[in-house]
Amino acid sequence: MRAITFGLILCVTPVQAARAQTQSPASATLASPTETERLIVNDTLWRCAGTTCTGPGGGGRVGDHQACRDLARKAGAVAAYTSVRGTLSADDLTRCNGRAKRSDRR
Fold first, then answer.
1. H/E element holding 1?
2. Start-to-end Cα distance in the chain
3. Max Cα separation, the chain?
4. Burial, 74: exposed, middle or buried (Cβ in 10 Å; 0-12, 13-18, 19+)?
5. Quick one: pLDDT at residue 19?
6. Pairing between strand 38-41 and 78-83?
7. Residue 8: how many CA atoms within 13 Å on its side-chain side?
8. Strand partners, 45
9. Which one of 37, 38, 56, 74 is CB 3.0 to 4.6 Å from 23, fit for a cystine?
10. Interval 97-106: pLDDT, tens
11. From CA 78, how far away is CA 75, in angstroms rounded?
């Protein structure tokens, strides 16, 4: 049983390490403040205070778009999104917020 558990740990750890390397820090400004301090978005932790959220972002430019959309679904409309790759444009943010959580759906 110990060998199986140890084997599973060895299998999961490289996957998690690869995911961490492909994701870079990102910051999002929400259109409205959130009361939630921690959000789990696609198995990753985002920390929020008022209208500012920080998290792992996505891997590459396409990953940033996906991370923005996923955050918007959980936290509400995103007014700005920045990562090491740059800031999303107004058009990108419009697409990001296409399925944003609405405050009236609580």
1. none
2. 44
3. 53
4. middle
5. 45
6. unpaired
7. 4
8. 40
9. 56
10. 998 887 644 4
11. 8
Q: How far apart are CA 60 and CA 63, in angstroms?
A: 5
> Which pairing describes strands 86-87 and 44-55: parallel, antiparallel, or unpaired?
unpaired
- The string of pLDDT tens digits covering residues 8-65 is 444 444 444 444 445 579 999 999 999 999 999 888 899 999 999 999 887 777 789 9
d(CA 7, CA 57): 29
Which token pair is 11?
């299998």
DSSP secondary structure, 17-79, as one string? HHHHHH---EEEEEEEEES-SEEEETTEEEEEEEEEEEE---SHHHHHHHHHHHHHHHH--EE
Residue extents of the structural domains in the chain: 23-105
pLDDT for residue 20:
44
